[in-house]
Amino acid sequence: MIFSYIPKRIKFLIAIVFLVFIIFSCNKNEQESNKVIVRIRNEKLTLDMLREMIPVENPGQLTYEQIQNYIQRWMDQELMYQEAIKQGIRKDNEELKKILKNAEKTYIVDTLLDSLLSREVNISEQEMLEYYEENKDNFVNEKLEIRALHILVEDLSTGRDVRRRIINGEDFEDVAQETSMDYKSNGRIDLGYFNSEMIIPDIGRILFRQRKGTLTNPLKSQFGYHIFKIVDKRDPNTQKDYEEVRKEIYERLLAIKRKETYNDFIADLKNKIDIKTNFEYLEELFSDSVNVTSDLMRN
Questions:
Q1: Are 162 and 151 in contact (CB under 8 A)?
Q2: What is the C-alpha separation between 1 and 219, in angstroms, rounded?
Q3: What are the pLDDT digits (tens) for 48-84?
Q4: Is-contact 166 175, C-beta < 8 A?
Q5: What sign does the CA torsion over 201, 202, 207, 210 have?
Q6: How far apart are CA 229 and CA 167, in angstroms?
Q7: Residue 20: is its pLDDT beyond 60?
Q8: Cβ(210)–Cβ(216) under 8 Å?
Q9: How far is the CA of 246 from the CAs of 104, 118, 139, 186, 195, in angstroms?
Q10: Strand pairing partners for 195?
Q11: Quick check: 144 and 235 in contact, CB under 8 A?
Q12: Nearest CA to 37 among 55, 16, 23, 52?
C-alpha cells in the first residue's frame, strides 16, 4: 500500500491533519455536518455542535489537543448531567424551574430587542453636521497630538532600504503599499491623530520630539521596525475637524435614535396594556417609595 512506507509518527500527524480538515471544512455537506463524534447513551456530539462550541473566527488554527479539550469538556458535562438526572436532581426542582423560566424570558426579550434595534436607521449628513456644530466642545483634543504615516517591516535592513527609497523621492504611500506588514494586514498607512498614551512608550518618546515633516529612522518594537512620517502636530485644546470625528458622530446619533426607538416601543406597549400597580407595598422597604416608583409609569 502507498502508506506502508511512511513512518508511524508521520502517519499520526497525517491523521490529525485529516481529522481537523474534516471537522472544519467550509464546504461540508449535510452528511458530514450530522456526523457523530461522541455518543453517550442517546445524547451525541456532532460536527456542527462542535463548531458552535468553539468561539474563534478560524477554528482551523486550533491544535489537535485544543480540539480534544473541547470534546472532553462536552463529555464531562454530559456524563455529570446524566448522572444528576439519574439521581433525581431535576425532578420537581423549583429553583431550576425559576432559572429556566428566567433564562427563557431573557432569551425571548433579547431576541425581540435585537430585531427592534437592528432595523435600518437613517442618519443624514445634515444631521451629523448639525450635531458637530452644536457639540463642538466635545470634539477637542486634551493632549498634544501628532498625525503620522506608518510603515512596518520585519528587519532593520529592510527598514533602512525603505527609508532610503522615500528620501530619494518615492511616494511614502506607494512604498508602504508595497512593503508594510501593517498595510498588508490592516490596510493601514495613515494612523490619524494620536497622543503619547496611544502608542508604544519607547516609540512615543521619540516620535513626540520630532518636528512636522520628519521621516524617522527605523524604530524597533516587538512587532518589527517602524518608519513614521510626521504629517502634523497640534497643541492641546485644538478643535478636531468634522471629517475626523464623523464616524464617532454617526455612532452617537445611532445610539440616540436606537434609544428613542426603544423608549417609543415601551411607551406604545404601556398605552396598549393595562398595568396594575401596588407601589404602596414598597413603603415597608423604602420610606420614599411613592416618589421613587411613581416615575416608573411616567417614563
A1: yes
A2: 56
A3: 888 888 876 666 677 888 888 989 999 999 999 899 8
A4: yes
A5: positive
A6: 11
A7: no
A8: yes
A9: 39, 21, 10, 21, 19
A10: none
A11: yes
A12: 23
Tell me the residue type at 83: E
Residue type, 77: Q
Q: Which residue is associated with the grid cell 416601543?
A: 265
Instruction: Give SS3 for 245.
Output: helix
> Cell numbers 455612532 correspond to what residue?
251
Of 28-32, 33-37, 133-137, which one has max mean pLDDT?
A: 133-137
CA-closest candidate to residue 152, choices 98, 84, 227: 227
Q: What own/partner pairs with CB < 8 Å and gap ≥ 24 does 239-245 have?
A: 239/136, 239/139, 239/140, 240/139, 240/140, 240/141, 240/193, 242/129, 242/132, 244/192, 244/193, 245/132, 245/139
Q: Average pLDDT over the chain, rounded to whole? A: 84
Q: Is residue 145 classed as helix, strand or coil in its secondary structure?
A: strand
- Sign (positive or negative) of CA dihedral 138, 143, 146, 150: negative
Backbone angles phi, psi at 180, to 5 degrees: -80, 125
Residue with cell 524617522: 216
Non-local CB neighbours of 129 within 8 Å, separated by 6+ positions: 242
Sheet-wide strand order for 219-221: 190-194, 145-153, 224-234, 219-221
Distance CA 231, CA 228 (A): 9
Q: What DSSP state is assigned to residue 239? A: B
Q: Which three cell numbers stand for residue 65?
A: 489537543
For the chain, domains (ranges, CATH) are: 2-109 (no CATH), 143-234 (3.10.50.40)
Q: How far apart are CA 81 and CA 10, in angstroms?
A: 38
What single DSSP character describes residue 283?
G
Report the C-alpha gap between 61 and 65 in whole angstroms.
12
| pLDDT tens track for 237-285 | 999 999 999 999 999 999 999 999 999 999 999 899 888 888 787 777 7
